[in-house]
Amino acid sequence: MDSASVFLLILSVMAAYVSAAKKHEDVLDTSSDITEQIEKANAHSKTALVHGDIIPSPAKNAVPCTARGCKWRKYGRYVYVPVSFSRSYSRNEMNTIIRGLLTFHSTTCIRFVWRRWWHSSYIYFFSGSGCWSYLGRQSRGQRISLKKNGCLHNGIIQHEVLHALGFHHEQVRSDRDEHVRILFENILQGREGNFKKVETNNLGTPYDLTSVMQYYKYAFSKNGKPTILAKSDPDLNFGYSDAMTQNDIDRVNRLYQCCE
User: Fold this and answer.
1) Residue 2 reports pLDDT greater than 80
2) Above pLDDT 70, what percent of the chain?
3) Rounded mean pLDDT of 138-149?
4) CA–CA distance from 34 to each of 39, 135, 230, 241 (Å)?
């Protein structure tokens, strides 16, 4: 892949949508937590999901998968991730997704480019049965579902893209028990697996209750009581970020060695 020509592709084609995208507000009500919105959007999904919004894939579980081939490839200074979009999206809807993708350009070395025929690995955005993604790069084209009515919000776009880059939810990371309590007695029957702790490489970053990857306090509750409590303050509400925090950004940059 010629990095110069790909970067020109970003500038000449993808960035052409920026000015138009900025004219339109996100089409999702932001009055509630984005992870709550993801849960609601996926409530009736017939797609098999683990951890609430992740498509299971063999031998690829959380950040350790990035050591076994699910990182996106880096060429020179940048990590190029080819993308394509379903034709079912309107121009405004596609602009909302592109605007979310461009936030990675301004803070990390991730660069989203238009998919071409020679790209064997790429992301295909479509309006599916909810908001969900695979974990890390797959060996073929992979889908990210961003349902038109429920998922087209900057924080949700970033959340699902971070999954595709290899990142798991905050509340399942390997050191979570030092920071939060999981109240299994309040979790919906059959959803306990969404809280299963995972072996993660935390990349030297602290646990972040404000992360865009942190589920909210009442996630998958069966009785309206909390399922996650912060050990530092059991009365604390969290999981309401609508954009990546500095910790989220730092993790991307460390995983993909963006400073090198």
Assistant:
1) no
2) 76
3) 92
4) 9, 19, 19, 7
pLDDT digit string, tens, across residues 174-192: 999 999 999 999 999 999 9
- The enclosing H or E element of 124 equals strand 123-126
The Cα 38–Cα 98 span in angstroms is 19
Is 36 an annotated catalytic residue?
A: no
> Position 233: which residue type?
D
Q: Please identify which of the residues 93, 160, 178, 185 carries the catalytic annotation.
A: 160
How far apart (Å, rounded) are the C-alpha atoms in residues 144 and 47? 12
Which pTM value belongs to this model? 0.85
How many CA atoms, within 13 angstroms, populate the side-chain half-sphere of residue 48?
2
> Is residue 68 scored above 70 in pLDDT?
no
| Model pLDDT for residues 23-43, shown as the tens digit of each residue | 444 443 444 576 677 766 666
- Pairing state of beta strands 123-126 and 142-146? parallel
Long-range contacts of residues 146-150, Cβ cutoff 8 Å, at least 24 apart: 146/97, 147/41, 148/27, 148/88, 148/89, 148/93, 150/28, 150/37, 150/40, 150/41
pLDDT averaged over every residue in the chain: 84
3-class SS of residue 11: helix
CA atoms in the 13 A half-sphere facing the CB of 38: 33
Yes or no: say if 116 and 5 are a contact pair by the CB < 8 Å rule: no
Question: For every residue of 21-63, which 3-state class applies, written as one string?
Answer: HCCCCCCCCCCCCHHHHHHHHHCCCCCCCECCCEECCCCCCCH
Query: What are the C-alpha distances in Å from 128 to residues 81, 94, 138, 149?
Result: 21, 14, 19, 10
